[in-house]
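quick one before i forget lol
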Amino acid sequence: MSESINITIIIEDAPNGHKEVNIAHDKNMTLMSTLLKEGLMSVDNCGGRGTCGRCRIRFMTYAPIPTGLERRTFSPEELRQGCRLACMAKPQNDCAIRLEFINNREIDIVTVAQSTLEGISDNKKKHIIAVDLGTTTIAMQLVELETGKVTDTYCAMNPQRVYGSDVLSRIQAANSGQADSMKESVWKVISDGVYTFLNISSNNTSSRNITNHNKADLNKTDYSVQSNIDCICIAGNTTMEHILMGLSTEGLGKSPFTPVELGLQKCVMPGYNFPIYITPGISTFVGGDIVAGLYHCNLLPPLTEEVSELSNETGAQLFMDLGTNGEMAIKSGNRIIVTATAAGPAFEGGAGAAVPGSDMIKITASLLEQGIIDETGLLSEPYFDDGVDIAIQPASDSICIIGRSMSNNIHLTQSDIRTLQMAKAAVRAGIDILCQKAGNPKIDNVYLAGGFGYYLDVNAAVTIGLLPENLRDCTQAAGNTSLAGAYDIGRDMLTGIVNKNTLEKRIQQIESINLAQEDDFDRLYISYLNFDNGRNT
């Protein structure tokens, strides 16, 4: 039986200064559930599992007994001061709480190219709308069919972030009855993007904030320009595409991890007269966004009944898209092998860090070079117990150790370092296994896809052992290959270069491996935990 208590919420960084809000709270629920319901919290980063540490609050009175997760997140002094996690805390008495959330960094959404903001200025030119449906962000571009010229860009955060920042949280939310609202929220963003493109085209405005249109608004737009849009092509991971298409996600979150559909899908959006293609995927863990990236980089196998043997005589190509999940593919000869490994939020640091993944790699490399951490990942004295505070100096792009009294610093703990070590070890072991499966060919090119790859310092990645030394000089940022590949697939579908049958046949030739089932994975994983880049393996 529920029992309500009264809580005073203190918001010190409110727009109008110090603010207090009184709310009723069910004692049997976590505080996060009430904060989300009251609109006092917008994002459930880790699905309420207590792993990200960003929902930090401070009880001014009657702090509940800390959970084990909270004891690992906060120092004894912080716990005595009332620090808790909103996703864990279940207050039992009327109390006052101060919100001290660690805000997520502002995310740069990497697109294919700068748009010209011309819209559809020539009524004779055809266009494609390419969509990168990411777990965190959604990027859309209006692209000329014939030339590939980007004429407009629309970007937004994925509204499903309120259900958690990772794929597992989304699956759990969808399976618990939220699937319809999650689906509608993303279609709303896509519809807003389409409406913006068409509105700019017909009214010659540069407004980028058209997000609340309704049927009356749509009737004001000159939809004759619709005839200049041939299709939308959407690329996303398997979970994002399942939710978008209203498919069950029950099989995605548990073994044997069976998706409902991996083939090319086609649909329409009410009010529009052009088709929408959903890019095909490879497996539950390697989805349409990776297929689009491989297609753009010309790494899909050719359409042939027989695949040539892998060869270590000629150079191979390695494709990597690192983020919350790390998807990797190797192509040697006409054969391609793919895999995926979970990285979680490790590349972005822990609760005290909240830094871009590429910066986390660079910071760790710098700490290693300065002797602040050793090759085993241990922080040296005097940082071992309390962690280290650092700042990136914009002028020189260098790392500077700073005092705890400084504000706006980045605080890294031993736990943050360990979490990064586990993620980079999993990725590095995955690279090794892919290479082994391919006969250990010489790798000529490594393509780093996505925002992480775009900003990654390759030298820093080699220093910490995320990438092997022999890949230092052949690694390049490939940009948003999901977005670029969505355009490529849409274009080739329209022009007849590929069709559903031929595209799916090419994808079916790809071999997908599960790292957890590979005998050598555990050994390699352990060997790469240290920051010695495998020298002692």
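fyi Confidence is low (pLDDT under 50) at residues 202-223, 305-313, 403-408.
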